Amino acid sequence: MLPYTAEVLFALFDEYNQAIRPLQGVALFLTAGVLMLALRSRENRSRIIVAILAAGWFWTGVVFHLVYFTELNFAAPAYGIVFILQGFLLFWTGDTGTGFPSVSSANLQVTQVLPFSSCRRSFCR
Q: 73: which of 16, 55, 65, 95 lies 20 to 30 Å off by Cα?
């Protein structure tokens, strides 16, 4: 059971979206850029994709959880810190090149795009 109603949560989402209003377009542009980079061959595309994803993680941790969600949930600062740590790990992993294998556009498969898919790579061919 949540300590707040759905209306209160939706009001928080509304307040957050009003505050960052022009930045939704930037986020949409960056998301489209990540998808384009994922499907096209380009030098250092993995690093660019990971940097954009890490920036999104940092934003969510700092702006949403630490600034906005804290007023509703006492655990929001912990969520924010975890998001920030994950952003650092994501950025570090992408920067060092460990843990993110390079994938060419020719062999990009559904299981590589949707990592939480129940379909295993060997069964999807």
A: 55
Helix (H, G, I), strand (E, B) or coil at 57: helix
* pTM of the entire predicted model: 0.71
Cβ atoms of 34 and 52 closer than 8 Å:
yes
Is 111 within a domain? no
Q: Which two tokens stand for residue 64?
A: 């949403």
pLDDT in tens, 89-107: 998 887 666 555 554 444 4
CA distances 70 to 28, 63, 124, Å, are: 25, 10, 43
In a domain, 117, yes or no: no
Distance of alpha carbon 23 from alpha carbon 29, whole angstroms? 10
Domain that holds residue 73: 6-100
